[in-house]
């Protein structure tokens, strides 16, 4: 019997990048060629600029880091797009995206639910209370209004924002939801956010099953 110790599974950032790449390639089979094209194209442009300005050695030194930076940026954007595509249309997709917000945000999925499976999720953060709906605008407008009325009895003068997530006119696409939430003004201090969250615990219903994240274990949507 061999005395060799079993090889441990890969850990750390390299393993995370590899897992994210495999996931992205499933949704976007052309990703390998796109990234290769970006890397080689950026490399060629940098070298060309070096000869144009007659300082090829300077641009030669900068060529590889710049090409890697451009490739990483494009890879991040394509991975993010693939991640959103994975959960698009699933029940609780908006909550799944909201759960990737950085620390300081508290998400309670499905505080409002209808028989048609329209949902309202509650986010508590520096702006105050944000109610985010999933479903057709014709149905969720009243659902949001009712949830706002119910929430207002617990939060006093704290601002309450209503956002509709969806693809209809006037709604926020899933891929832009996180950005829209983070653009809201900061009205509360961190201590006030904590107190507000405690007050709203009494309103919390048992949440529905929510997708555990747009990316597989070890990967994530870029925050912000």
Description:
By secondary structure, this protein is α+β, with helices and mostly antiparallel strands. It is built from seven helices and four strands, in the order ααααβββαβαα. The chain has helices at 12-27, 31-52, 56-87, 93-98, 137-155, 174-182, 190-200, and strands at residues 106-113, 119-125, 128-134, 160-165. Helix 1 (12-27) crosses helix 3 (56-87) and helix 2 runs antiparallel to helix 3. It is elongated and about 70 Å long. Mean pLDDT is 85; it is low at 1-10 and 215-224.
Topology:
Layout: H1 12-27, H2 31-52, H3 56-87, H4 93-98, E1 106-113, E2 119-125, E3 128-134, H5 137-155, E4 160-165, H6 174-182, H7 190-200
Parallel strand pairs: 3-4
Antiparallel strand pairs: 1-2, 2-3
Helix pairs in contact: 1-3, 2-3
Keywords:
224 residues, alpha+beta, 7 helices, elongated, disordered N terminus
Q: Which residues form runs of ≥5 with pLDDT under 50? A: 1-10, 215-224
Radius of gyration: 23 Å
Number of strands: 4
**What fraction strand?**
5-15%
Instruction: Label the overall shape.
Output: elongated
Based on secondary structure, the structural category is alpha+beta
Q: What percent of residues adopt helix (DSSP H or I)?
A: 40-55%
For the biggest sheet, the summary is: 4 strands, mixed
Strands in their spatial order, largest beta sheet: 1-2-3-4
Number of helices: 7
Q: How many angstroms does the end-to-end distance come to?
A: 51 Å
Average pLDDT confidence is 85
Q: What is the ordering of alpha helices and beta strands? A: HHHHEEEHEHH
Compact summary:
This protein has helices spanning 12-27, 31-52, 56-87, 93-98, 137-155, 174-182, 190-200; strands at residues 106-113, 119-125, 128-134, 160-165. With 224 residues, it is α+β, with helices and mostly antiparallel strands.
């Amino acid at each position: 019997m061999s005395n060799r110790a079993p090889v441990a599974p890969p850990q750390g950032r390299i393993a995370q990048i590899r897992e994210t790449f495999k996931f992205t390639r499933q949704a976007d089979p052309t990703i390998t060629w796109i990234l290769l094209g970006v890397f080689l194209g950026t490399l060629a442009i940098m070298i060309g600029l070096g000869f144009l300005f007659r300082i090829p050695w300077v641009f030669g030194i900068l060529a590889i880091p710049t090409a890697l930076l451009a490739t990483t940026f494009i890879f991040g954007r394509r991975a993010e797009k693939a991640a959103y595509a994975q959960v698009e249309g699933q029940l609780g997709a908006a909550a799944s995206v909201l759960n990737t917000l950085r620390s300081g945000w508290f998400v309670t999925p499905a505080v409002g639910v209808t028989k048609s499976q329209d949902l309202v999720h509650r986010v508590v953060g520096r702006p105050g209370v944000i109610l985010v709906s999933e479903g057709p605008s014709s149905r969720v407008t009243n659902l949001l209004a009712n949830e706002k009325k119910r929430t207002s009895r617990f939060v006093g003068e704290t601002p309450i924002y209503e956002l509709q997530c969806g693809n209809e006119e006037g709604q926020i696409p899933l891929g832009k939801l996180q950005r829209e939430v983070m653009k809201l003004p900061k009205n509360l201090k961190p201590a006030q956010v904590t107190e507000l969250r405690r007050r709203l615990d009494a309103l919390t219903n048992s949440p529905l099953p929510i997708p555990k994240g747009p990316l597989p274990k070890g990967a994530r949507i870029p925050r912000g």
